[in-house]
Design a protein that fits this description.
3-stranded parallel β-sheet; 2 domains; 279 residues; 43% helix; alpha/beta; TIM Barrel; 8 helices; binds zinc ion
């Protein structure tokens, strides 16, 4: 009988322990999905970071975005497609904006995209990413970094994927090029719910075109509420393709300037370095 009691006690103890273990695990699970207590530290006590990026090396960015940014001392990231007309004709202007503290980012030399995806009739058959090898495109991206260094003297920069196309020869391009960058804007996304799982090497962007200033402001407000980041990728500013108007761009900058204590506006290079080094 004593033996039986002992055995029962042991069983009960084990049962209690297992129950406790399952409950503790369930609590941990709950915690991992609840980001409300996760605090991310941005410089100067800011609630959110704002990355203002501009793809494709467009003349309207030099003519319209740069004066607007410089007016407030905001630094942006300009992802140059190095074969673009404006790089050939205005490389000294790009060099000058790098000297002002803006980032010249890598957007490859030729901007190859996959013709096999929907609505890609416009892709030049000689510049079809589906026909390129991983070795070719990696080499092009490394050479783009070398050309950018010739323009701005910098060795550390970030990358944006042309057309957000990351599959080459059926494989993911991002791990191949990761050693050459401190940050990669790779896909269309939303304002992150928190910084807990944010990976600057595979970062989401919001690419607005034909939006209102209020819509852009609502996005940065959401980033402040989430203690996360508003990662924008613009194209034309007041002209060129996928444009937003200069007025809409200005409304966003005005709002950020009025609320400088809430938002840390900087290059994606500096934001990525902060995320990986300071936290
Ligand atoms: Zn592009």
């Amino acid at each position: 009988m004593v033996k039986l009691l002992k055995a029962f006690n042991l069983f009960f103890l084990a049962y209690t322990f297992v129950t406790f273990f399952i409950a503790a695990n369930a609590m941990a699970d709950l915690k991992s999905t609840d980001n409300s207590d996760y605090k991310f530290n941005w410089p100067n006590g800011a609630k959110a970071a704002v990355s203002l990026s501009y793809d494709d090396a467009l003349a309207s960015q030099l003519d319209n975005a740069i004066p607007a940014l410089n007016h407030y001392g905001f630094k942006g990231s300009f992802y140059l497609t190095l074969s673009a007309k404006s790089v050939n004709e205005r490389w000294e202007d790009w060099r000058a904006i790098a000297k002002q503290g803006h980032e010249l980012g890598n957007h490859t030399i030729n901007h190859a995209c996959r013709a096999s995806l929907p609505n890609r009739q416009w892709v030049d058959k000689n510049n079809n990413l589906d026909n390129k090898t991983m070795a070719q495109i990696t080499k092009e991206i490394i050479e783009a970094n070398q050309l950018l260094t010739a323009i701005d003297g910098q060795k550390i920069r970030t990358f944006t994927l042309p057309c957000t196309d990351n599959i080459v020869e059926g494989r993911d391009l991002l791990p191949e090029i990761a050693p050459y960058f401190v940050g990669i804007k790779s896909h269309i996304g939303v304002i992150p719910a928190s910084m807990k799982y944010f990976n600057p090497m595979n970062a989401p962007v919001i690419a607005p075109s034909r939006v209102t200033g209020q819509a852009l402001i609502a996005l940065v407000k959401q980033a402040a509420k989430n203690n996360s980041i508003a990662s924008f990728t613009f194209h034309g500013i007041g002209a060129d393709h996928l444009a937003i108007s200069t007025e809409v761009h200005q409304q966003l900058l005005d709002y950020l300037a009025i609320n400088k204590g809430i938002y840390w506006v900087d290059t994606f290079r500096n934001i990525s370095l902060h995320i990986t080094q300071d936290n």
